[in-house]
C-alpha cells in the first residue's frame, strides 16, 4: 500500500456514488458518516447521490451533507443501470468511482483513503 504521504491520494479525484430511495434514519447515519470521511480524506472526494424519487427526507439529508443530488423517477431505477448512468455522468471528473449503498455506514472518518490507496498498489 502507498505510504500515507504519497501524492496519488492527494491528487486523485474520487467520486462516491450512492443510489438512494427512502433511506430514512439509516441513510441519515450513513450520510453523516460519509460526510465525515469526505472531510477527513487527504484527497478530493465528491459524493453523487442518485435518488429514485424518495418521499422522505433522503434528498434533503444528502444536500445537508453537501452531496450533489441527481433525482430520477423510481420506475427507471435499475441496480446496474443506475450505477452506470451515475458513472457516465461523472465523465472525466473522477479518476476513481466508489459505489456505496444507502445503508453502508462507514465506521471511521479515515475509511475512504485506504480504498483510494489500494489503486496505487500494483500487487
Index terms:
4-stranded parallel beta sheet, 4 strands, disordered N terminus
Explain how this protein is built.
With 123 residues, the chain is α/β, with parallel strands linked by helices. 38% of the residues lie in helices and 20% in strands. It contains five helices and four strands. Strands 3-2-1-4 form a four-stranded parallel sheet, sandwiched between helices. Strand 1 (13-20), helix 2 (24-40) and strand 2 form a beta-alpha-beta unit. The radius of gyration is 14 Å and the shape is globular.
| DSSP E strands, number | 4
Q: Report the major sheet.
A: 4 strands, parallel
- Please tell me the overall pLDDT: 90
Low-confidence stretches: 1-7
* Number of H/I helices: 5
> Any idea what the radius of gyration is?
14 Å
Helical amount: 25-40%
Q: What is the string of helix and strand elements?
A: HEHEHEHEH
Overall spatial form: globular
Distance between the termini: 9 Å
* Order of strands, widest sheet: 3-2-1-4
Structure classification? alpha/beta
Strand content: 15-25%
Briefly characterize the structure.
The chain has helices at 7-11, 24-40, 58-64, 79-90, 112-117; strands at 13-20, 44-51, 68-71, 96-99. By secondary structure, it is of the alpha/beta class.
Record the SSE blueprint.
Blueprint: H1 7-11, E1 13-20, H2 24-40, E2 44-51, H3 58-64, E3 68-71, H4 79-90, E4 96-99, H5 112-117
Amino acid at each position: 500500500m502507498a505510504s500515507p504521504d504519497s501524492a496519488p491520494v492527494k491528487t486523485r479525484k474520487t467520486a462516491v456514488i450512492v443510489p438512494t430511495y427512502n433511506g430514512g434514519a439509516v441513510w441519515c447515519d450513513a450520510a453523516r458518516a460519509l460526510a465525515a470521511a469526505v472531510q477527513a480524506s487527504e484527497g478530493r472526494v465528491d459524493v453523487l447521490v442518485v435518488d429514485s424519487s424518495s418521499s422522505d427526507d433522503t434528498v434533503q439529508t444528502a444536500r445537508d451533507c453537501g452531496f450533489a443530488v441527481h433525482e430520477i423517477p423510481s420506475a427507471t431505477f435499475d441496480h446496474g443501470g443506475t450505477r452506470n448512468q451515475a458513472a457516465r455522468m461523472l465523465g472525466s471528473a473522477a479518476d476513481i468511482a466508489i459505489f456505496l449503498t444507502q445503508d453502508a455506514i462507514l465506521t471511521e472518518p479515515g475509511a475512504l483513503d485506504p480504498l483510494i490507496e489500494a489503486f496505487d498498489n500494483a500487487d
